[in-house]
Amino acid sequence: MTPIRLLLIIALLCCSAPAAQARAIVDMAGRKVEIRDRIERVVTLGAVPVINGFLFALHEQDTLANGLPPQLARKYQYVFAPGLAGKPVVQGAEKGLAVEDILALKPDLVLTMDIATAQKLGDLGLPVVFLRWTAPEDVKALMALLAEAFDKADLARDYAAYFDAVVSRVSAWSGAALNRPRVLYVNLRRLTQPHRIAEWWIEKAGGRSVTDDGRLQESVTFSLEQMLAWDPEIMIVADQGELKTAYADPRFKDLAAVRDKRVFVAPMGAHLWANRTIEQPLTLLWAASLIHPERISREKLEAEAAAFYARFFDKALSNEQIDEILAGASER
Question: What keywords tag this UniProt record (predicted)?
Fold first, then answer.
């Protein structure tokens, strides 16, 4: 994009904007952001499926102005927001952000979890809100912030109450458990535990994460020798290909989880449940059903998932769709 063309787009954007914005909110970096009273076009950047999930929970999927990058496409994103299929893609794995295309969309709100992106686009005059999710319960603060932007505080309160109720329920189960099995959430291709939030849900669900050493980094890499020494009793993987690898690769045959057929694929709804997602309460219930199956049956888990999507995403899913999500079979 040439500097002259960029300036023309910025000028056009400024001319088309109202003389004064209706209100201001403070984002999770402490930045004051002026936004319009009525938000009709939202651009989500970076962790697009994660951010989109919050809009689904606020029943604002129709405001999404951009589509999913191919590498981040998830089948149920299109189920929860059918209009995504026809929206322009404004970021890519190789070219990064298409700034010109973002400006041309004239968004009322831009959402990102990358502070550099927030600052860059904010300097161009766009209303960019930075979202931070480091601690597990940040999901509630993030939901409350976006609910403020859309004037839907009641939905944020409802979600927070449900989140707390599930954590309390599952904590009671795990607290009464006599043993905590060794659990590993793993990317077998890279021998990493890819997301720190898994340390939280494994512990809350009644397991003992073998990678939980108090680390601060998002992911941790380890050797095959270390993995064998940990000898996890339960393994969680991200997709069906990894499940096949766990059982087919001779390097893993002596692991307790492999021997006992306790390798499981994380469910995939709006996003992968094992990672950061608005579906985190379901992650806890699902993990508890694996670690202490006497506490929650498959039938109860299915009912809980169906109720969650109906209540928070305003989407009634069929039994087949719930089964597909729980099986982790909806990857793309």
Answer: Signal
